[in-house]
């Protein structure tokens, strides 16, 4: 069984709330005009999440291009193109997730022989197990930039199946690589981006430092909002389809009671054992059931469909969280703010 990406219409559900005006927590980049004779620093990010963070720091003095910039693209199985190779080769600063999540980027960086600094979010995170995850990040993906076949299994060139089967050579169970949901990691990445931009473009060093501090302030607000949410719902229990939002749930102090075998299997694109599926479904059938289901909005499988159906039948709210920015959203802080609002509304119910 494979995971399959959802239609964009499913992904953007709830994001219209952005237009209604959110609480502060915007990116807050200082609005300094860029003139025609002021060159912009070329920044390349593996995903638009990290691209948004880089843009928040670099503001008007950077040109950010994200390789993954659509909710219909999956970083785990993305096929790098010759254009991607050229883009990475021309970058002055590279920002990636690391930890095997965006292995295509590791391959592109290695193949390009670039001397540009690389900000690796997993390395920057300081999270337990991050160093080992970064050291074990597989450098495959370069073959896709040249079209050469180096003997990978049939599928997408990485040993994946035809959907999101994540047989990409790294063990998701050893480290949760979805570090953009780790708010302290986002702040550390912003600081690293600001430092490198100042080295590349020292004329605007103060501007980058100010913007990095603004990102830090936004992260502090989000952290306070998450912890307040947890305090307002002491003892809240949720189920998840994948470990994507786990860092945010931990910040909020909200317990994830999903059997680990279930979320790990869904992430790897395999069928959870029947007994594990039954245990997960029981979370919605017991009295009381879990308070909410947090579902990865960009993937679906027979198992996640079963869990969603069980939640809806039990009247348990479903909160969708994603791996990349929804269509029409380009601000990390506002995106995360919306997701916390939706989680809070679900727990309030």
From TrEMBL:
Main location: other
Top-level taxon of origin: Bacteria
Keywords: Metal-binding, Signal, Transport
Localization per record: Cell envelope
Ranges for region Disordered: 130-173
Lineage of the organism: Bacteria, Bacillati, Actinomycetota, Actinomycetes, Pseudonocardiales
Position of the signal peptide: 1-29
The keyword Magnesium appears for this protein: no
Keyword Transport on entry: yes
Record field: compositional bias (Low complexity): 130-145
SUPFAM superfamilies membership: Helical backbone' metal receptor
Protein name in the entry: Zinc ABC transporter substrate-binding protein
Pfam families hit by this protein: ZnuA
Extent of Basic and acidic residues compositional bias: 147-173
């Amino acid at each position: 069984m494979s995971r399959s990406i959802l239609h964009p219409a499913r992904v953007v559900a709830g994001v219209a709330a952005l237009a209604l005006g959110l609480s502060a927590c915007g990116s807050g980049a200082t609005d300094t005009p860029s003139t025609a004779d002021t060159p912009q620093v070329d920044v390349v990010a593996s995903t638009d999440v990290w691209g948004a963070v880089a843009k928040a720091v670099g503001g008007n003095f950077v040109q950010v291009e994200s390789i993954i910039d659509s909710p219909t693209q999956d970083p785990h199985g993305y096929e790098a193109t010759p254009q991607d190779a050229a883009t990475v080769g021309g970058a002055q600063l590279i920002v990636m997730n690391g930890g095997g999540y965006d292995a295509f980027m590791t391959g592109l960086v290695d193949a390009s022989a670039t001397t540009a600094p690389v900000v690796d979010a997993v390395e920057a995170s300081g999270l337990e197990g991050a160093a080992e995850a970064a050291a074990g990040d597989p450098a495959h993906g370069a073959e896709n930039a040249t079209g050469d076949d180096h003997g990978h299994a049939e599928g997408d060139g990485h040993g994946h199946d035809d959907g999101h089967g994540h047989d990409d050579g790294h063990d998701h169970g050893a480290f949760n690589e979805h570090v953009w949901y780790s708010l302290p990691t986002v702040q550390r990445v912003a600081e690293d981006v600001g430092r490198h931009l100042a080295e590349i473009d020292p004329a605007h060093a103060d501007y980058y430092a100010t913007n990095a501090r603004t990102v830090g302030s936004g992260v502090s607000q989000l952290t306070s909002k998450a912890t307040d949410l947890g305090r307002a719902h002491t003892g809240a229990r949720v189920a998840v389809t994948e470990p994507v939002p786990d860092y945010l749930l931990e910040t909020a102090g909200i317990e994830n009671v999903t059997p680990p075998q279930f979320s790990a299997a869904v992430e790897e694109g395999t069928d959870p054992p029947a007994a594990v599926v039954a245990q997960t479904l029981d979370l919605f059938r017991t009295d009381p059931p879990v308070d909410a289901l947090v579902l990865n909005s960009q993937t679906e499988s027979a198992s996640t469909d079963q869990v969603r159906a069980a939640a809806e039948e039990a009247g348990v709210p479903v909160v969708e969280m994603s791996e990349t920015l929804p269509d029409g959203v380009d601000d990390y802080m506002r995106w995360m703010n919306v997701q916390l609002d939706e989680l809070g509304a679900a727990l309030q119910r």
